[in-house]
């Protein structure tokens, strides 16, 4: 539904009633207008008045790589009182979402399409979460747009406070919902794929308008604004963007030996698997993808893929080969040919940027893939620190993994603040240009 016509936007802008006032007007359509609310962009900006880390750190300096700002951020992150002051407990979300309008306003969600271009190109997101509600909510806030649609899968093993908090958050938005069939996720086992499959099906059936599917986890964060994401996806011209390359020898045991879940963990059962169906070449990739609606339809309906899915259920870490393999099946919308010349590494795919510990090194060295992690490592993956932001924002990827507000709240906050400022700058420039061209 068209929330605002272009002519109305231009008229309002010419009267200096900018984005903040529009947002407030939309938020109060069912009540009388309250003139005490300031008609300005400040309603959407993140400032130190929000109680965020900005009042104690220098985000601008951090993003420019200034040593003093980075050293200050490192110092703050080891001060317990600072880290405690930045944490938002699950109970906050449980209580705050009892008044959804107030929650949306206080958390400064963008509750209407910011451009016709974005409104005409809705996206579908799957977000798999099992803990760290604050991480999830800041991710949702950073990617939220009313024309998009979001399916959230909360691990059935999650604490009740996590489930309740996320249930409260999703209930405050008509286009955000909990998956209809949650599963108990097991690391490196089939249920991790099933969680995304269940969200894929819900998203596909819930809306016929979205153009691309993007799957995330709760510790991802965008590197681009929604407008930038839309423009990058439009430039794919119906193609997909995900890691898909020849499988290294060291990983082939994952798909040649059968596995099963025992006591909540996956392990080999000492049995050799049958070859893949249809003599399909099994490609290597990762769990996170950017694919068009036709790809999702094929996953849900193509008999070849359904057979592959059944074959994959007793493999180790099927999320690291299933999507990559489907991407190379002839006839799948947006796919590429299985020949090695069409291989795509994670550094070339737009889907996700991850720093693997074994491929880090001194910045500038020709023998490493990327500079050293400025945060810490979890399962050989860099959990980004504030010192990683300058490098991250130079990359072409849409999202990066991992972030953790408990480890480095400054990294998340400064990135989120940068994206919000960029979004508002895009909006101001867009309507300035429209105004000039119309005159």
Q: What gap, in angstroms, lies between the N and C termini?
A: 28 Å
The general outline is globular
Q: Helix amount, in percent? A: 25-40%
Which structural class do you get from the secondary structure elements?
alpha/beta
Strand elements, count: 16
| CATH topology annotation of the domain at 90-351 | Spore Coat Polysaccharide Biosynthesis Protein SpsA, Chain A
The CATH architecture classification of the domain at 90-351 is Alpha-Beta Complex
Task: Report on this structure.
With 439 residues, the protein is an alpha/beta fold. Among the domains are: 1-39, no CATH class; 90-351, Spore Coat Polysaccharide Biosynthesis Protein SpsA, Chain A. It has 18 helices and 16 strands. Strands 3-2-1-4-10 form a five-stranded mixed sheet, sandwiched between helices. A three-stranded mixed sheet has the order 5-16-11. A two-stranded antiparallel ribbon has the order 6-9. Strand 2, helix 10 and strand 3 form a beta-alpha-beta unit. The chain starts with 5 loop residues before the first helix and ends with a helix. Residues 1-40 have low confidence and may be disordered.
């Amino acid at each position: 539904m068209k929330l605002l016509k272009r002519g109305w936007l231009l008229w309002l802008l010419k009267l200096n009633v900018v984005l903040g006032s529009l947002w407030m007007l939309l938020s109060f359509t069912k009540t009388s207008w309250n003139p005490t609310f300031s008609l300005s962009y400040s309603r959407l900006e993140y400032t130190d008045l929000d109680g965020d880390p900005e009042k104690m750190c220098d985000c601008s300096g951090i993003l420019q790589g200034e040593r003093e700002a980075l050293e200050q951020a490192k110092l703050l992150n080891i001060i317990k009182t600072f880290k405690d002051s930045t944490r938002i407990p699950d109970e906050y979300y449980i209580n705050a979402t009892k008044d959804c309008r107030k929650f949306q306003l206080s958390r400064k969600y963008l509750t209407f399409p910011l451009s016709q271009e974005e409104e005409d190109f809705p996206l579908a997101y799957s977000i798999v979460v099992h803990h760290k509600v604050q991480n999830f909510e800041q991710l949702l806030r950073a990617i939220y747009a009313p024309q998009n649609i979001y399916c959230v899968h909360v691990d059935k093993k999650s604490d009740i406070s996590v489930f309740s908090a996320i249930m409260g958050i999703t209930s405050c938005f008509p286009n955000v919902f909990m998956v209809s069939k949650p599963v108990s996720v097991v690391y490196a086992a089939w249920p991790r794929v099933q969680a995304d499959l269940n969200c894929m099906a819900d998203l596909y059936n819930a809306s016929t308008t979205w153009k691309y599917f993007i799957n995330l986890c709760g510790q991802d964060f965008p590197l681009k604004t929604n407008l930038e994401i839309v423009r990058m996806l439009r430039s794919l011209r119906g193609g997909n963007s995900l890691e898909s390359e020849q499988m290294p020898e060291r990983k082939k045991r994952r798909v040649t030996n059968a596995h099963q879940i025992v006591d909540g963990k996956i392990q080999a059962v000492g049995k050799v698997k049958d070859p893949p169906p249809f003599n399909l070449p099994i490609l290597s990739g990762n769990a996170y993808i950017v694919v068009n609606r036709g790809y999702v339809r094929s996953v849900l309906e193509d008999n070849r893929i359904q057979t592959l899915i059944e074959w994959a259920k007793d493999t180790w870490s099927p999320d690291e080969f299933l999507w990559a393999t489907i991407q190379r099946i002839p006839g799948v919308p947006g796919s590429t040919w299985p020949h090695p010349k069409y291989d795509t590494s994670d550094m070339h795919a737009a889907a996700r940027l991850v720093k693997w510990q074994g491929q880090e090194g001194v910045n500038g060295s020709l023998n490493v893939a990327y500079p050293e992690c400025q945060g810490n490592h979890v399962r050989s993956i860099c959990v980004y620190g504030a010192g990683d932001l300058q490098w991250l924002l130079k990359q072409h990827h849409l999202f990066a993994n991992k972030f953790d507000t408990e480890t480095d709240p400054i990294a998340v906050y400064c990135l989120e603040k940068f994206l919000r400022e960029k979004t508002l700058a895009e909006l101001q420039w867009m309507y300035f240009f429209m105004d000039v061209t119309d005159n």
